[in-house]
Specification:
With about 140 residues, the protein is mainly beta. The chain has a domain of about 100 residues: Immunoglobulins (Immunoglobulin-like, Sandwich). Strands 1-2-5 form a three-stranded antiparallel beta sheet, with no helix packed on it. Strands 4-3-6 form a three-stranded antiparallel beta sheet, with no helix packed on it. A hairpin with a 7-residue loop joins strand 1 and strand 2. The longest helix is centred in the N-terminal third of the chain and has 16 residues.
Length: about 140
């Protein structure tokens, strides 16, 4: 019973002070449109975000010989709604200790029909130097 009395007195006091009835809506108040901010335009993807590397693998050939070679092969695809006219892949090659051995950049041939662009970036050294490659890191460069 006391709750009802308390609620009734609060409503009566509020009505007297003008907090019930017509009032100007505050920005962001539920039920009222908030026109204080303009709609955000979708952001243009950053340089390396226009395409996505969906596959990559370290490829070794002629292992243990003076003709040993190492390359990184993979596939990139464009992000949804993005058109790209040029794609390049930068492969950084590292040894077992994480030391950078070399970096190579290759242009990717764009296949308009499949929207899957295959690439292969070859380490520039052969033989023992190629055998030192343990890991790689890829970066993408694009043009609209």
């Amino acid at each position: 019973m006391r709750r009802r009395d308390l609620l009734a007195s609060m409503l009566a006091g509020c009505a007297l002070s003008g907090c019930i009835g017509d009032h100007e809506p505050l920005p962001g108040e539920p039920g009222e449109p908030d026109n204080s901010e303009e709609p955000e335009e979708p952001e243009e993807p950053e340089e390396g975000e226009r395409v996505e590397i969906v596959e990559s693998v370290l490829i070794r050939e002629n292992v243990g010989t003076d003709e040993e070679t190492v390359a990184v092969g993979g596939v990139v695809i464009p992000r949804e709604g993005v058109e790209v006219s040029y794609v390049e892949i930068r492969a950084s090659f590292y040894d077992m200790e994480g030391e950078l051995l070399d970096t190579t950049i290759e242009q990717v041939e764009i296949d308009e029909e499949t929207n899957r662009w295959e690439f292969e970036v070859t380490y520039p050294q052969m033989g023992e130097q190629a055998a030192e490659v343990d890991e790689y890191e890829l970066e993408v460069g694009t043009e609209l």
